[in-house]
Amino acid sequence: MATIKLPAVLVGGSATSEVDVAGDTVRELFENHADEHGPELKDSVLEDGEIKEFINVYVEGTPVESVTAEVPEDAQVRVIPAASGGR
């Protein structure tokens, strides 16, 4: 299973969390996570079946832009919302 590392802002907590999820592609990971834990994360990351514009997904440190990207069995997957604002 892959491990998805999620920032607090996406999971409503005060710290980054990690969850193990099965799936061979990015889409399968988020679908399986939704089946097990509810649709909130999937809804935060995906829009119209694709990764939202201001969400960055990394598989083993490599940025991916498509939900069809392959995910190795024991991969580390990070989801990072883009930061903006400031002066």
UniProtKB/TrEMBL annotation:
CDD domains: Ubl_MoaD_like. It comes from the Archaea. Pfam families: ThiS. Gene3D superfamilies: 3.10.20.30. This is Sulfur carrier protein ThiS.
